[in-house]
Design goal:
The complex is a heterotrimer of chains A (about 425), B (about 130) and C (about 650).
Chain A (H helix, E strand, L loop, with lengths): L4 E4 L2 E4 L3 H11 L5 E4 L14 E2 L4 E2 H14 L3 E4 L2 E9 L2 E8 L14 H5 L3 E3 L8 E3 L1 E2 L11 E2 L9 H5 L12 E7 L1 E4 L3 E3 L16 E3 H8 L19 E8 L15 H15 L4 E6 L9 H10 L3 E4 L2 E6 L5 E7 L4 E7 L1 E6 L1 E3 L34 E3 L9 H29 L1
Parallel strand pairs in A: 1-13, 2-3, 2-14, 3-6, 14-25, 16-23, 17-18, 17-23, 18-19
Antiparallel strand pairs in A: 4-5, 7-8, 8-13, 9-10, 11-12, 15-24, 20-21, 21-22
Chain B lengths: L8 E7 L3 H10 L8 E6 L7 H10 L1 E8 L9 H18 L7 E5 L5 H18 L3
Parallel strand pairs in B: 1-2, 1-3, 3-4
Helix pairs in contact in B: 1-4, 2-3
Chain C lengths: L16 E6 L11 H9 L4 E7 L5 H12 L5 E6 L2 H14 L7 E5 L1 H5 L5 H19 L7 E4 L3 E5 L3 H12 L3 E5 L14 E2 L4 E2 H13 L4 E4 L2 E9 L2 E8 L6 H7 L8 E3 L3 E3 L8 E7 L1 E4 L3 E3 L15 E3 H10 L7 E3 L2 E3 L1 E8 L24 H15 L4 E6 L9 H10 L3 E4 L7 E4 L8 E7 L5 E7 L1 E6 L1 E3 L3 H7 L26 E3 L9 H19 L3 E4 L4 E3 L9 H5 L6 E8 L2 E8 L9 H5 L5 E3 L4 H12 L6
Parallel strand pairs in C: 1-2, 1-3, 3-4, 6-7, 6-16, 7-10, 16-29, 18-27, 21-22, 21-27, 22-23
Antiparallel strand pairs in C: 5-30, 8-9, 11-12, 12-15, 13-14, 17-28, 19-20, 24-25, 25-26, 31-34, 32-33
Helix pairs in contact in C: 1-5, 2-3, 5-16, 6-7, 6-13, 10-11
Classes of the chains: A alpha/beta (about 425), B alpha/beta (about 130), C alpha/beta (about 650).
Chain lengths: ~425, ~130, ~650
């Protein structure tokens, strides 16, 4: 049996989303050796999947790709994608992470991202990266601005026809690739494990995600993206241009029926942004946002909200109680209208659920770091050192420590990098004092 | 199928932070556009004097699209200065009886595929209609 | 500053160009006849070799280029392949590994911008033209060196609130010397005005004492209280600040009780702050040489206009910070809260005072400003205070009048729930139907009444009799107009300092080496301000960590043989100070000539366009190079 590969770094970053990348860059720029371990096939996290971002309406790719490229090309950063963290423990002053890299069935050292395998693969699969609205192949590059641009084969759907192996100019396809285990040892770690959307399947009142033309907020992002699946906004059931679109706020936040009592902090703003983009691409559509409180608290956010109101987007105070399929693929909402109408119902052609955030990672059984009642990672000095966890040398950044928007995430990632750098400086000072 | 470029060449000055990666994004989507388009990567189009544009037309370029970053310009004040310069170029073009539709200032983001294609196709129509300068 | 210019003699001005064209495994060669491109390139005078490879980015492909460089066959390199964003750095580093200057490189994009968008003969023709144009540009390339400037391992933090303290301590912990400048005699800033911090309940005094204690105990940090920055010069890595330390001319009474006989330095004084040192008896001037400046100038609490919800007209109307202070200083165990000797049986707390103002609905202040922004912290602070009152003084009824409850942060929603559970009554109003605070009739038991149209009960007009009205006032940036003028700081429409980009460079300003920390940038709570402060600290550590600052060499350069000293470029320059006219001797005569300060030059080229003599250009991107490329594009035969 082969000995397990052991790699030494100064810092380990768990998660290659925007938080992890920013923390990695801020450490690598100080000449620390950094490993970034990402579970997905590409770095970039949720942010690279977004259309435009509030409140500046910059295209998200334009902000994310420079940081992705900077990290990928950085001489002090090594990126490991498609990896599972099996354990992260501290032994004395060393953190040890056991990692398994899942097989891509493509040798990453040989693949040059030419996409010939993708062009020749005969199998079409619904593309999750496009909200399931378009298809990809079973041999594919994850998405156009993925880093690394390395193909992988989706074995669930591959029919082993061998075409990809035949056309690959570098013989990179390897159907027999095995998972690879390795160990990373580091002095410090930053947990940047991000978030997932609250699962709509758990919300019976909203149809468990099965009502046609009720889509999630990330699906709406793809519909609105300048390089999205349809190149315009169409409702999925029949390709009709929707005339009436609704956004339902607090779908999976501030909702005890789903066990999520906290505010997810970003949904108000992203819904307002989506509503604005939508009114740009469908100028005649009626757009309604159903909400409890609009939480436009960040820099420039309130002004953004007021602009949306001025653009004619309708804001209705009221928590939507139920969602049902209506006639002609429409969607019927029932809600209590706080303007005196009592329980009211309304029909829309398409409805977007502004889903909240749940933790992207549960450390239980993997890492002894504590989580709080909200299941996000606990911070022990939330006021003066907001990125410290109860595990020595381990810091947290971004949505791993509770829902957060991109601005706050990036700032916090810088703060986590600062804590990690301080921790390593103190270690070094202590080591010198002993020596 | 190849899209035939109309008579006349189109010069595209594309900013390295926005429009140039935007053109790459069009390529990644494998969208087609006319071949008579020549994209030059620039840090900021503010560097080109009025005469540069006139010289281009004199040399035989039929249309120029300045694809800038717009308000997202990384150099504060450069977009404003550029817009003013383009206005002056328009005056000079009028004086030389050059149709001012041959020069266009626009903003293209890194994934603005549709906007890119629209601009290119529009300019192609214009140079097709006007012929060489 | 060591702005080294490479010896221009090392390689000839007109180069020996090597052109390397990639098949990209069919991605390019399926639509572009790569060998035909190569043949065309070989015909160009000045092209020494033209080669092709299946994958130029592969090790063998790179090796081929390196060999040609090492053997002296070529001294300029053009690679025609995919988008430069993918492999420009790859090829530049291959050139470096071959011992050549990486800036003798030009990239031709024939995949994303040719083979993926065009097909047939026309694709090949276009590829030939683009590669030929790149070759024309490459001939005009010269070796460049990054601009390297020595940087002082020293940071100056302006502002001794929580953000300033956090930044100072973080940097000192990384071994960077810090000067902390605070205008008042105290450390701790606005937090000292608080009793406890929502939602954690941390006592403000503990937080300030802990952090101020760490800062004062750190030998790497020099704290200057009662000090103001009066002059500012230099650029990143090399700033000089003139600082005036003077005896405080305000708060004299307070200070006389502290110094010299009263309090001892090293103590937290409630509602003042941490008192670190005896205040200066006489004015004193200091000069601080520093590498990076961090602005942590903080906020001030909004002061309601006279008559705004009855403020300053009725003594029973106070602000939330005033309430917090009164409560802290008069702790009682009664059933009812007591304010200024009067029992509070019923009180109203009005949200969004001085925040979320809407032009056309709210009046502007005397300078014509609106605070359109949300102040972010007041909802939680109000709910926390309401909860505390309801628990300690069950006899005091509370009405909260709000527009939206913004308990967004971790642990904040619980404050909202807690307040509701403690029977705080919530009334919701629309922005254009603000509550009214009016004096009650003489025979009324309560001095004031608050009238509001409550959205929660379908717009019912509600009148609440109260003993006290508390205004949840928002944040305004501290007035730092002197620093803004002196350091040319950008200010947003909200009057807070404006970062370069909220996501790309959230704690940086366009002026290199000047950073933002905390509420001078936007409203934040304590945790958020500390995060922002640490993020500023890490940026400062990155800037100074190597002992020098390295900048791209793509900056303007003046050709002194052509420069006539008209000053047009100086006027067009977008970053003040990057271009100046200086006196120099040319042919025994004193003349004025343009001079570039590379450290300040953005390389945008605004100067290039306005020089009638073509005497200024951007290194690596010259106007001549563009003209050469256009000539190729318009030529009848691209390679003629």
């Amino acid at each position: 049996m082969d000995a397990i590969l052991e790699l030494d770094f100064d810092a380990l970053i768990v998660g290659g989303g925007i938080a992890g990348l920013q923390a990695a860059l801020d450490l690598a720029d100080q000449d620390y050796q950094v490993a970034v371990v990402e579970k997905d096939t590409s770095i970039g996290g949720k942010m690279i999947r977004l259309s435009k971002v509030f409140p500046t309406l910059d295209c998200s790719s334009c902000i994310t790709t420079p940081k992705m490229a900077a990290a990928a090309h950085h001489e002090n950063i090594t990126i490991f994608t498609y990896c599972d963290l099996k354990s992260l423990e501290s032994e004395g002053l060393v953190l040890t992470a056991s990692i398994t890299q899942r097989p891509r069935y493509v040798n990453p050292d040989k693949c040059i991202g030419c996409r010939l395998c993708e062009y020749h693969c005969p199998v079409y699969v619904a593309d999750k990266e496009e909200g399931g609205f378009s298809a990809r192949k079973a041999a594919y590059i994850p998405f156009s601005n993925a880093i690394p641009q390395i193909a992988l084969i989706d074995v669930e759907n591959c029919m082993l026809c061998g075409k990809c192996a035949k056309v690959c100019p570098t013989q990179a396809v390897d159907y027999f690739q095995e998972p690879e285990n390795f160990t990373i040892r580091a002095k410090t770690a930053v947990l940047a494990t991000g978030f997932e959307l609250t699962p709509v399947e758990n919300k019976q009142q909203y149809g468990n995600g099965e009502i046609p033309n009720v889509i999630t907020s990330l699906q709406m992002e793809r519909l609105l993206a300048p390089h999205g699946p349809y190149n315009r906004v169409l409702r999925p059931s029949d390709g009709m241009e929707p005339d009436a679109v609704a956004f339902i706020q607090c779908a999976g936040s501030r909702d005890k029926s789903m066990g999520i009592s906290y505010c997810s902090r970003v949904c108000c703003m992203y819904a307002i942004k989506q509503a604005m983009l939508l009114s740009g691409s469908l100028p005649l559509a009626d757009i309604t946002v159903y909400y409890m409180d609009i939480r436009a608290f960040g820099k420039g956010y309130e002004q953004f909200y007021q602009n949306a109101k001025a653009m004619g987007i309708e804001f209705v105070k009221g928590k939507v109680a139920t969602i049902d399929a209506g006639a002609n693929d429409s969607v019927t909402l029932r809600y209590e209208d706080q303007n005196g109408e009592g329980v009211t119902s309304a029909n829309h052609d398409m409805v977007a659920l502004s889903l909240g955030m749940i933790p992207g990672w549960n450390p239980e059984g993997t890492c002894p770091v504590s989580t709080a009642a909200d299941r996000f990672i606990q911070t022990i000095r939330p006021k003066i050192a907001p990125t410290r966890t109860d595990m020595e040398g381990v810091f947290v950044a971004g949505a791993a420590a509770g829902p957060k928007d991109i601005v706050d995430t990036i700032t916090e990632a810088g703060a986590a990098a600062m804590e990690a750098a301080k921790y390593m400086t103190a270690m070094e000072t202590a080591r010198k004092a002993v020596a | 199928m190849a899209i035939q470029g109309k008579e006349g060449k189109i010069l595209i000055l594309a900013t390295e932070t926005c429009a140039y990666p935007g053109a790459d994004s069009v390529g990644q989507a494998h969208s087609s556009y006319p071949t008579n388009t020549y994209i030059l990567r620039v840090r900021s189009p503010v560097m080109f004097p009025e005469q540069f544009y006139l010289d281009c037309f004199a040399k035989g370029i039929s249309g120029i699209i300045i694809m800038s970053c717009g308000e997202e310009c990384p150099y504060e004040g450069a977009y404003h200065a550029l817009a003013k310069r383009v206005d002056r170029v328009y005056q000079l073009m009028k004086a030389q009886e050059l149709d001012i539709r041959r020069l266009r200032l626009t903003a293209i983001c890194t994934v603005c595929n549709r906007a890119f294609l629209k601009e290119v196709n529009q300019m192609n129509e214009v140079v097709g209609e006007l012929g060489p300068p | 500053m060591t702005d080294k210019k490479t010896d221009k003699e090392t390689i000839p001005a007109k180069g020996k160009v090597g052109v390397y064209i990639c098949y990209c495994g069919g991605n390019i060669s399926d639509h572009v006849e790569v060998e035909k491109v190569r043949e065309s390139m070989e015909k160009i005078p000045g092209v020494e070799v033209a080669r092709t490879d299946m994958f130029m980015c592969s090790d063998p492909g790179q090796e081929m280029i390196m060999q040609d460089l090492k053997s002296g066959t070529v001294d300029r390199v053009v690679v025609a392949s995919c988008a430069p964003s993918l492999h420009e750095t790859t090829f530049r580093s291959a050139i470096s590994r071959a011992g050549a200057n990486p800036y003798i490189y030009e990239h031709a994009n024939i995949r994303e911008q040719v083979s993926w968008v065009h097909h047939g003969d026309q694709a090949t023709d276009k590829a030939i033209r683009l590669v030929a144009a790149a070759t024309a540009k490459a001939e005009g390339l010269k070796p460049l060196e990054p601009i390297r400037m020595e940087a002082r391992q020293h940071v100056t933090v302006i502002g001794g609130g929580i953000a300033g303290l956090r930044t100072a301590k973080d940097l000192a912990d990384c071994g960077v010397a810090v000067a902390l400048i605070e205008k008042s005699p105290f450390l701790g800033g606005q937090i000292a005005q608080l009793e406890r911090l929502a939602p954690t309940g941390d006592p403000a005094a503990d937080i300030v004492t802990e952090l101020a204690g760490e800062v004062l105990g750190d030998p790497g940090i020099t704290v200057h209280t009662c000090s103001l920055v009066e002059t500012f010069n230099g650029y990143v890595g090399n700033f000089t600040l003139g600082v005036k330390k003077r005896p405080p001319d305000t708060d004299c009474e307070k200070l006389s009780s502290l110094n010299p006989s009263g309090r001892t330095p090293g103590e937290f004084i409630p509602f003042k702050g941490f008192y670190p040192e005896s205040v200066a008896a006489r004015a004193e001037e200091l000069s601080i040489e520093t590498g990076v400046v961090v602005l942590a100038t903080g906020f001030k609490s909004y002061t309601p206009r006279r008559g705004e919800y009855g403020y300053a007209e009725f003594p029973e109307v106070i602000t939330l910070p005033e309430l917090i202070r009164i409560m802290a200083e008069n702790k009682t165990t009664d059933n009812c809260l007591e304010i200024n000797g009067r029992q509070v049986r019923s009180m109203a707390m009005i949200h969004c005072v001085g925040s979320r103002q809407i032009p056309g609905i709210h009046p502007e202040d005397e300078s014509g400003n609106f605070n359109e922004y949300c102040s972010r912290t007041c909802c939680s602070a109000t709910l926390d205070t309401a909860g505390t009152i309801r628990q300690s003084y069950p006899g005091t009824r509370i009405f909260e009048l709000y527009r939206d409850i913004r308990t967004y942060g971790r642990g904040q929603e619980e404050l909202y729930e807690q307040a509701a559970k403690n029977k705080v009554v919530f009334l919701r109003f629309e922005a254009d139907e603000s509550p009214e605070v009016i004096r009650s009739n003489d025979h009324d038991d309560f001095p004031l009444r608050v009238k509001v149209k409550d959205v929660l009960t379908f717009g019912e007009e509600v009148e609440v009799p109260v003993d006290l009205v508390v205004l949840a006032t928002g944040m305004e940036p501290n007035n730092v107009s002197e620093l803004v003028d002196m350091m040319k700081l950008p200010v947003g429409p909200d009057r807070f300092l404006l970062e370069v980009h909220p996501k790309l460079r959230p704690v940086e300003l366009p002026v290199g080496g000047i950073l933002l920390a905390g509420t001078c940038q936007a409203p934040m709570d304590v945790g958020e301000a500390c995060s922002a402060a640490a993020a500023a600290a890490v940026k400062a550590a990155v800037l100074l960590g190597r002992g020098y600052v390295e900048l791209d060499p793509f900056v303007a350069e003046v050709d002194l043989e052509k420069c006539r000293g008209t000053g047009a470029c100086v006027e067009a320059c977008l970053n003040e100070g990057a271009l100046n006219l200086v006196e120099m001797e040319v042919d025994g005569e004193m003349v004025q000539r343009a001079q570039v300060t590379s450290a300040l030059c953005w390389g945008c080229g605004a100067c290039v366009a306005v020089c009638s003599e073509n005497a200024i250009d951007i290194n690596g991107w010259t106007l001549k190079q563009y003209e050469a490329m256009v000539d190729i594009i318009v030529a009848d035969e691209a390679t003629a």
